[in-house]
Amino acid sequence: MPPDWRTQSFAPAYYRLVHPHPPLKTLFLAFGLFLVTLCTCLVAGTQFAVAYAHGEALSFEEFLHDFTLLYQHPTALAAGLPFALTLLAILLMHELAHFFACRHHHIHSSYPFFIPFPTLIGTLGAFILIRSPIRTNRALLDVGASGPLVGFVIALPALIYGVLHAKLVPGLSDPAHAGLVLGTPLILHVIAAVLHPGVRAGDLLLDPVGRAAWVGLFATSLNLLPAAQLDGGHILRSLSPRAHRYSSWILPAALILLGVFHFWPGWYVWGALLLVIRFFRFIPIFDSEPLDPTRRFAAALTLIIFLLCFMPSPFFT
Fold this sequence. Notes:
This protein is mostly helical. The chain contains 10 helices and 6 strands. The termini are far apart.
């Protein structure tokens, strides 16, 4: 008997069946990591809240002390809620945008996973695992650009709120008067010029909500570095695979040079990491149809966001 044509699938060959949702056990893992990250971000947020009350950008002594509050007096960490909830919202919306873009294009991905870490900002960010190939240029752009665009939209109002409630602290950006100085991205200069004319953006002490937005925008700029398998790398590859290949070699060297010239030691780590990732195998794009004008506009927006958020010296002494 010949096969029944009604039972055959005529979907494009570069699509594959995507399960209704990732495995349930990974949801429990994602939720557990979220709770742990909430705790570390509460510690970081409490530190920022105390430092803000004392007219300081950071307080290392308070940061170390606040970790003891986790088991001695956890209710005292409520002061860290504005920072923690704002930052987690920015990171979560960023990753959910990636997640739903993957679902839209029939790409199998994990739930968002947070990375808790006892740093001054409480986390190393969040990520999703993409478990099936990205087969088309359109999908590559949508997956790469969705996270930074949504994250920026969430972070921008928080940054404006932080600037509105900022304290003027002369000398805040002078390493001679502060142990550690936080950089000032271009977007902060623009907003400060509008809301506080004549005031140096570097002398504005952001409240914890604004500081969380600062962290979120810094993370966005790192994700938009146009190399390897970062969001910026996906976007550039969807526009020009050749430019992506060149950038994946040139950018790590440029970041290492930023470290050599003492902009930020962390650029050594990022440069080395991107060089290592460069040797990973890239899955070929089977449908290389050029992007439509709307997606090209979205790519241009991500470039603008990168320029607004990137800081050569995010931390310096």
